Please model this.
Amino acid sequence: MNWCLIIPLIVGLICAILGYLLGRLSSGNNNAEIDAWKKKYAKLEADLADCRSKLSTQPAVAVIPFDAGLAKSVFGKAIKQDDLKIIEGIGPKIEKLFQKHGIVTWKALSECRVEKCQEILDSGGKAFEIHRPGTWPKQAQLAYEGKWAELLKWQDELKGGK
Model:
């Protein structure tokens, strides 16, 4: 008999048996880990279903259509939708600064706290120190709601947004 052939076969068989036994021993831990992931997944699915049900029960948010003709008739010039420069005190540089921070619509600016507006201005450096955004969110709300006459009347009373 050729031992050169039998010894590798025996060693291979022993390694296969040991590998199988080690795999069985360590697979017990994997089942617990798989069960833990399944529980996390089930919880996330339940959370998602809960969020979806809450979302479906909330009233739809009404979108106020932009009337460029009405805005032009009040201001005497063409107004582009969500042009932040229509706000008294906001010029092209401040508009770009706000857009850089994700404030790109009148609605977004109307929902922005005055403190947040000031933080955005502060982030622009010394050139923006003199600006006071105290009325900007309210002006943006009037623009978003299409209350052009009220906005123009108020802006006539303001000086530089103050």
